[in-house]
TrEMBL record, chain A:
PROSITE patterns: PROKAR_LIPOPROTEIN. Its main location: other. Residues 1-28 form the signal peptide. Keywords: Metal-binding, Signal, Transport. One of its GO terms (cellular component) is cell envelope. One of its GO terms (molecular function) is metal ion binding. One of its GO terms (biological process) is cell adhesion. Belongs to the bacterial solute-binding protein 9 family. This is Manganese transporter. It holds the Pfam family ZnuA. It is found in: Cell envelope.
Length: 313, 372
């Protein structure tokens, strides 16, 4: 072996020592010291739901923070340890998490319980992509009745993962279902304040289809479902015509999508001699942060309907 | 094995697997090919989706790989015409294919969550949770095996065809004379690049593919001229970047891929500044030294020209040289002192006089510069 090869081998060797030496010695104990169930949820909505249903018996970590577009989520090194120590993983499904979803499915074989919201949903209630029924719109959370189904799925999943806590989870579920029911009524009442013709919701991307279907709003989005595709010029111009024609008072910005496109739409409408206001910011792919006063699912959907109705009145 | 260690193993394997074909990309001035492929595979995914209508079909990955090959072949074909430069060929093919994909999505699949990330994992943090299970035995993360196979293919191809690759990269004429087609070698290499990009994309995501494929080879290029050594050094640098990047990500709790890409950039910067021969500092030093050598030579010529002549007093005085050569006097004094130390010049009554050695040196310089 010549000198050069020895040098290389030495480098490789000292490197493998570094590799082993530096990695944190976390052991997969699958439970923390206080014996709480570790739940990892993907979106902020699911983290909130898991906290409500799990109550005292669980600790919940969300992977995606407030204001993060799930399509653009980047995992950090800390997320790896979270996943590793998770007893239960809660995810949305319907391809919202992209390829990550498949990984969560596989996790069930590795000691963690996996709760997939998609599985608890009635397929007939899902909105399909045009004529292909195998691909669905994943933004199910703004139809409160679908969220009730999600709450049941989480409660069932937690009861299976932690049978001792079953009664607690079911009590939490019952209480929460009542709150969801009230919220649903609240949204319907607020929506009813608008004449039917004015119930038109124009936003940046199509995250509100379920909301529209449930509460009688016509929803027009600028982008498609994936936030990767940019709005085309024809989209902007068509939508501007639509707004002028229907005399729509306000259009909306979304928390996890940059406001540029919707501002461009506003300018396009103005060029046609009609003034449309920007009605405010809607929470779409994530809940608000704690300071915003919309840190929970219930507060967020209420904030959204208030913003919408107040601006369109 | 803990996920943390598996992530580092995957990173090292991918880094080395990418660095090997990356060396040839850098040498052939086609670095951005990797960036091009990470974008154009979207078209392959979209087309495959129109066939299968299923976002989780493995055919989508096949489509991606095929489109990668189409991309490199189209680019190679364009640049072979010699009507446009290699980088221009990349710049034509990549936006064309990518925008066709975007148009198809907006036109026909507007409401499907169809993008590269939904088909290829592209997230190193989750790679360890995608397990390889044979029978019912868990034998490690899937990405370790897929990228490991990629590494073996690249290693084998480069070892077996080393001579051909070397000749085709540096001297295509010679390659043709030796009896193998440089075009064939290039197409083969580019196919390898395409497979590596798609395979590595699946494990580590697009930014890191580009960083791993280009960063280590350009860094190694600053350290060595020898192709074999450049391949080895690239591999080692890639592996170091991967592990350092992971450690930084763990400490700061940030995106792993992002952190590795940043480390790749920083290591390049470090080598760029401090490399022994090609680094910024050593070239600055070399330039300064050359400037001084040149000044000394100029002064010697000047003194030689005027030695013993009538105007020696006005031309060769320590206080008159600055005006003659347009130097400032401190610089002049410094140069005279250097020449004194070399034994080429003596000071007599404020006049700089050449010694015998100085005369000889001046003649030598003249011959070296003008006679040869």
């Amino acid at each position: 072996m010549n000198h050069k090869m020895k040098g290389i081998l030495g480098a490789v060797l000292s490197f493998s020592i570094l590799l082993v030496g530096c990695s944190s010695p976390t052991v997969n104990t699958n439970s923390t010291e206080d014996n709480k169930l570790n739940i990892v949820a993907t979106t902020t909505m699911l983290a909130d739901l898991s906290t409500v249903i799990g109550g005292e018996r669980v600790t919940v970590d969300g992977l995606m923070g407030p204001g993060i577009d799930p399509h653009l989520y980047q995992a950090s090194a800390g997320d790896v340890s979270l996943m590793q120590q998770a007893d239960v993983v809660v995810y949305n499904g319907l391809h919202l998490e992209g390829k990550m979803g498949e990984i969560f499915e596989n996790l069930s074989g590795q000691g963690a319980a996996v709760i997939c919201i998609e599985e608890g949903l009635d397929e007939s209630k899902l909105l399909a992509w045009e004529d292909d029924s195998s691909v669905h719109d994943p933004h199910i959370w703004f139809d409160v009745s679908l969220w009730e189904a999600a709450a049941k799925t989480v409660a069932d999943g937690l009861s299976q993962a932690d049978p001792d806590g079953k009664s607690g989870y079911e009590a939490n579920l019952d209480a929460y279902l009542k709150e969801l029911e009230e919220t649903d009524t609240y949204i319907r009442n607020r929506a009813a304040e608008l004449p039917e013709k004015q119930r038109v919701l124009v936003t940046a991307h199509d995250a509100f289809q379920y909301f529209g279907k449930a509460y009688g709003f016509e929803v027009r989005g600028l982008q498609g479902i994936s936030t990767d595709a940019e709005a085309g010029t024809a989209d902007v111009s068509d939508l501007a015509n639509f707004i002028v024609e229907r005399q729509i008072k306000a259009i909306f910005v979304e928390s996890s999508v940059p406001p540029k496109t919707i501002e461009a739409l506003q300018a396009a409408v103005k060029a046609k001699g009609f003034d449309v206001a920007i009605g405010g910011e809607l929470y779409s792919d994530s809940l608000g942060d704690e300071d915003s006063g919309a840190g929970t699912y219930l507060l967020t959907v209420k904030a959204n309907i208030d913003t919408i109705v107040d601006a369109l009145k | 094995m803990s996920p943390q260690i598996e992530i580092q193993i995957i990173a090292v394997v991918v880094a080395v697997a990418c660095a090997l074909p990356g060396v040839f990309l850098v040498l052939r001035k086609m670095s951005m090919m990797s960036d091009s492929i990470t974008h154009t595979i979207l078209l392959g995914i979209v087309l495959a989706f129109f066939v299968t209508h299923d976002l989780s079909s493995p055919l989508l990955i096949v489509g991606a790989a095929l489109m990668g090959v189409v991309t490199v072949w189209l680019t190679e074909m364009l640049s072979r015409t010699r009507l446009l430069a290699k980088d221009a060929a990349i710049g034509v093919v990549f936006p064309l294919l990518f925008s066709i994909a975007i148009i198809l999505i907006t036109r026909y699949a507007g409401s499907v969550h169809l993008d590269t990330d939904s088909v290829l994992l592209g997230e190193l943090a989750f790679a360890p949770f995608d397990r390889m299970v044979i029978g019912s035995v868990d034998i490690g993360a899937k990405a370790i095996y897929t990228t490991g196979i990629l590494l073996l293919i690249n290693l084998a191809a480069i070892i077996i065809f080393f001579k051909e690759l070397k000749a085709a990269t540096f001297d295509p004429m010679l390659a043709a004379v030796l009896g193998f087609s440089p075009a064939l070698v290039h197409y083969g290499l580019m196919t390898l690049v395409s497979l590596t990009t798609v395979g590595a994309f699946q494990a580590v995501g697009s930014v890191l593919v580009v960083a791993f494929m280009i960063g280590p080879p350009v860094t190694a290029y600053l350290l060595t001229d020898d192709l074999k050594r450049m391949l080895i050094v690239s591999g080692i640098i890639g592996a170091v970047n991967g592990i350092l990047g992971y450690q930084a990500a763990a400490i700061l709790d940030v995106s792993i891929a992002g952190s590795m890409a940043v480390v790749t950039g920083q290591v390049f910067l470090l080598v760029f500044v401090f490399a022994p021969r090609r680094g910024l500092i050593s070239s600055l030093l070399r330039r300064r030294k050359q400037k001084m050598e040149f000044a000394k030579m100029t002064l010697l010529f000047h003194l030689y020209n005027h030695a013993g002549s009538d105007e020696e007093a006005s031309e060769c005085g320590v206080d008159t040289i600055p005006a003659q050569l347009h130097w400032d006097s401190a610089y002049t004094v410094k140069m005279i002192r250097f020449l004194e130390r070399d034994g080429y010049v003596q000071l007599l009554d404020g006049l700089a006089k050449l010694t015998e050695e100085g005369r000889n040196a001046s003649i030598r310089n003249y011959n070296a510069l003008f006679a040869g």
